[in-house]
User: Fold these one by one.
Assistant:
Number 1:
Amino acid sequence: MSLASTFVHCPSVRDVAFLEDHLLAVNQEGFITHIGPFHSEESAQILRSKGDAEELIIIPRTGLHLPLMQWLDEYAYKAEEKLDADLGLAKEVYSKLAQRLIDCGTGAVLLFGTIKEETNLVLAEVMQAAGIRAFVGKLSMDISSRPTYREASTQSALTSARSFVHRCRSLTSHLPAYEQLVQPVVTPRFVPTCTNELLAGLGQLAQEENVMIQSHIAEAYDQVEWVKRERGVEDTKIFATSNLLTPRTVLAHCTFIGPLKLQLLASTGMSVAHCPLSNAYFSEKPFELASAIMSHMKVGLGSDIAGGYTVDIMHAMRQAVVTSKMKAGFAKTRWIDAHELAERGTPWPDDVDKSEPTTRTVDWTQTLYLSTRGGAEALGLQGGVFTVGAPFDAQQIKVFDPANGYGVGAIDFFGEVEDGDKKIDLGVLEKWWCIGDTRNRTAVWVQGKQL
């Protein structure tokens, strides 16, 4: 397959690159074999051998009022148990999820499943059939406030986790490596649902089987306080002593972790799944995203799916910027208030730095990186960027319709597009980032295959 296009990608967290009038070639295995100027000699040779190229614009790709622990009790556990009890229902739900992910341009996803092996195998099968890269985690939990929804013992939980790893891998073992889109993930739900023995066993299992680890950590005030009260230490310490903080680990949320501890966590090579909308509902505290980026921590964007109202990562990009700016404004306001009170003789608060705060925010281009290359790095993937040897995972975006002279969807052009000029620049890309939707998305590829 050959595509002639303007390609837009984020090679680094502070760089948006436009490859205008380029030709990209993809081999039968779905890997990029060439990307270069359309009129270069090498591109010309490819066109002579493969014929015409298609011209595109490509870009790599209830109960929420309750506190987290109460929401899990009243909603999440019941829903998961219902899926575990009816595999037909599970397949129906997961098939709908797969289609919505594709509609939203998501070609790679890290999923929390349920505690039953068979249900998670259905999830893996559906994602593989849909052509989506899926990291599927069978939940491990030997503690639960819902007696009917937990594993019988620590040992049975470990046995089931190991069995799932093997069975999930066997689903695609007959396929070439580049077509094996589904991977198992060791998934302790979080500290409140796992004994220390289970966590340690899962850390050992992940090391022995060389699989990824995912969990939730430091997400909400009630969860953080529960761990301190019941275990006597913070959940980050428990994960560290259980060998669960590794370069293969992705931890969601991390909102109740300050900049200094984030630097220590970054040194382990772990990644963060930043879900800004879910954090607004359950954390009541924003993630230190700007600090994480400054610490060179691997960060990808997530929707948390159940912890919000949309699976669309475009919304997560926008919400991440809003959250970052609100957080910076709050810090500045607290410093101003403390400064004014100190001038009137009130002691300076211990939790407010006396030096004037430096405004650290993220902009839209950085969140575009986090939703493409950043997410790929967090998942240990080579994609998210247009370079030779990378898998061709991308989405096609249409912002202008030359047939009628109008922008597509909510994107309007007033006097900006003349004589059929379709030049894609940073301004047009920002328009799409701000107000684009599924009407602009006309194709999605994973490993070179159009979904």
Note: DSSP finds 15 helices and 16 strands in the chain.
Number 2:
Amino acid sequence: MAEIVALVDYGAGNLHSVENALRKVGAEVIVTADPETLRAADRIVLPGVGSFRACAEGLRAVDGAIEAMSERVLVGGAPFLGICVGMQLLADVGLEHGSTPGLGWISGEVRPLAPKDRDVKVPHMGWNEVAPLPHARDHAVLDAGEAYFLHSYHFQAERGADILAMTDHGGSLVAAVGRDNIAGVQFHPEKSQSYGLGLLANFLEWRP
């Protein structure tokens, strides 16, 4: 029997493109925010585009969704992938339009991009390198390559061990975070062609 991937539906704008990409690599996807379905899922993917505050408030507005995700991922050990703002929501707090609490699964803050070079534009938009750090070069999900980014805020992780990969846009930026059975990517695998599909296929095979 195929494993079920729960794609969390809380009004995130990239929901259907992520669903299509997951199905393309063979995933059995259920688009849902139902707590009982989340508790029964084999894997969970949290998408997200837009502002940290809007996404955090949207997720909290779905009764029982965060509790169910926490139970399935933090207690049950289900593999989890956060994408773009879905990755940023792993932080303790986001500083977009004020201070908004995140999930607090990976310690850190989401801060505005502030490139040292004034000629470097914000948002960070387009293709850029994903460079795994030495301690993450054998990570089952993440490979080196080029991916599509679109963001104006970045994850500033508290612990270096939680940073899986970096990129560069007027200075070093976190491209991926993770620990144990949790992974998050700042870029959009669903827009990253063969590299992104490869990452999603890796996620489906991941046995943390």
Note: Residues 193-205 form the longest helix (13 residues).
Number 3:
Amino acid sequence: MAGDGLSTNGTTHLTAVQKLRKMLADPDKVIACPGVYDGFTARIALQEGADVLYMTGAGTTMSRLGMADMGIATLNDMKTNAEMLANLDPSVPLIADADTGYGGAIMVGRTVTQYIRAGVAGLHLEDQVVTKRCGHLKGKQLVSQEEYVGRIRAANMARQASHGDIVIIARTDALQSLGYDAAISRLQAAVAAGADVAFLEGLTSRAQADALIRDLAPTPCFYNNVAGGVSPDFSVQDCREIGYKIVIFPALAMEFVYPAVRRAVRMLLDEGRVGAPEEGMGKEGERRYSPRELFEVCGLGECMEFDIKAGGTAYANGA
């Protein structure tokens, strides 16, 4: 069975969550995760060789619902997207936002179970109220430490009962309103309740980052690099020097797609065209791409090969 680390031909392989745990245990590895929000952006990241993907909750909310990240997405919205992303290439671990767990202890347990069954390798749970908001906005409201720790305990219980595995990342947004000491207390309690990784959202300085790594040791820590957010723009190398094990760039796809699509729409509306294929040749991103080129990113070649090997004739003469 795949869950036992065996492939159908009996050879041993690592599951996605086993790979993620191995990376966390590697003292020389910093896990750098590009943020993706749909199948196309995930396929692009996979094509470029990303060894771990991160599913952004904000990006999922905006792409699936067309709404801002204000606690609008439900478990079904998030799980459906995560399942699709995790199974584009099941050998590549996916870390996915799970917000607050979408309810009380029973609902948190259901969320964790659903993510495990979807093939997600890691998730993070936070201590905001259910009607949460993006961690880099003001005015966040928190549940009590007891309720937060209950969420993590419920997640750990569900993991144990599932006969599967998932890396549980405990996130706290307490720094903004309660201060550093309270945030650390919450993370320490979450780790004691079963969390594998600690995530202090919204830190504002290198000094806080250094203190976090020191105060949470030996628990691996997680950094969120949000363009224009409240936290420093730490590079992967910065995170390595500080001592982080995971660094995500959740808005990576969104922040580059936005100006490119906006520019193309503006050209269409103002000039009545989107640019000729010969214009800007040699400049990546400044030419138009054929359907075949775009389909190749999403597995056209593999689909054709599969059909031919199965005896199909639909693509015998190419596509």
Note: The mean pLDDT is 91.
